[in-house]
Amino acid sequence: MNRDTIRIIQRRLAELGHYSDEIDGIRGDKTHAAVHLAMTGLGADVPADWPEWSEKRQTIGFLQHYCWSKEIDAGRIDGWWGPQTEFAAWALAQLLETGAVPTFRDITPSEANPNGWPDEGGVTAFYGPHGATDWSRPPPKLVKVTSPYPFKIAWNLAQKRSFLWAHERTADSLARVLKEIFRHYGEAEIDRLSINVFSGDYNPRKKRGSAHQWSMHSWGIAYDFDDQNNKLRWGADRARFARPDYEAFWNIWEAEGWVSLGRTENRDWMHVQAARRH
């Protein structure tokens, strides 16, 4: 929780008559006392064991209930700050400020394509043959693109990686994208947002759920990031990379013509590719 979120909580507590101190965004003793009093009045709407939670967890639980009272899905009221609660807190702030919660329909991806990436149906003509699942033929012409910031491997966050594999026709563009992401965010913010959590690059395989269509990963022209917080079927209401903090991230990719399936189709928010959708 940041101070803006705590101010929202304090204002709500004041509305309920539980808090009369300064709206300062600080979780002090008076704020905690007000949260405890408010939670006591919620009865069966919150878990029975909430008095055993830490003060911070009670504050988050109160925020989650507040979001639900405004018909914003904050996930289970459990007092834990996860991706769904983070989204709900942002949505609540937007609702209180503007009177509405932005939806996926408010997203307008860029149609720029300065590198002339092909439609998915033309990837073989543009990039050449894809790799083979059984590695029975050579992979596409791949280049190791060094990143200006290290990646953490999604399935083992203690393991680091300093590069991404890229098809030779996308390598220069990828290098520009990574450089601009680093320039815009800096390493600390990249780490906070999990932009540096690597979930996949070159991988010769069929598309999930398809027996015939090859994944864009099979040409080395697609990347996945932070798959645990941006699951395949999650929409903008749950995916972490759909949040406002990531708008610049996607704008940087789209300026080079890369396509976010999240921004164009509201699914698979982990994924970006150098191939246009039909």
Keywords:
PGBD-like_sf, alpha+beta, 2 domains, 278 residues, elongated, Zn_M74/Hedgehog-like, Peptidase M15C domain-containing protein
What does this molecule look like?
It contains 8 helices and 6 strands, in the order αααααββαββαβαβ. The protein has helices spanning 3-15, 29-40, 55-69, 83-98, 123-127, 171-192, 247-255, 261-265; strands at residues 142-153, 156-167, 197-200, 222-225, 259-260, 271-273. It has a 6-stranded mixed beta sheet. β1 (142-153) and β2 (156-167) form a beta hairpin. The longest helix is centred in the middle third of the chain and has 22 residues, at 171-192. 35% of the residues are buried.
Briefly characterize the structure.
A hairpin with a 2-residue loop joins strand 1 and strand 2. The protein has 2 domains: 100 residues, no CATH class; 168 residues.
Number of helices: 8
Q: What is the number of E strands? A: 6
- How would you sum up the global shape? elongated
Radius of gyration: 22 Å
Average predicted confidence as pLDDT: 93
**Which runs of at least 5 residues are low in confidence (pLDDT < 50)?**
none
Give the tally of structural domains.
2
Largest sheet: 6 strands, mixed
Order of SSEs: HHHHHEEHEEHEHE
**Helix content bin:** 25-40%
For the largest beta sheet, what order do the strands appear in spatially?
A: 2-1-3-4-6-5
Structural class, from secondary structure content?
A: alpha+beta
Percent range for β-strand residues: 5-15%
Distance between the termini: 40 Å
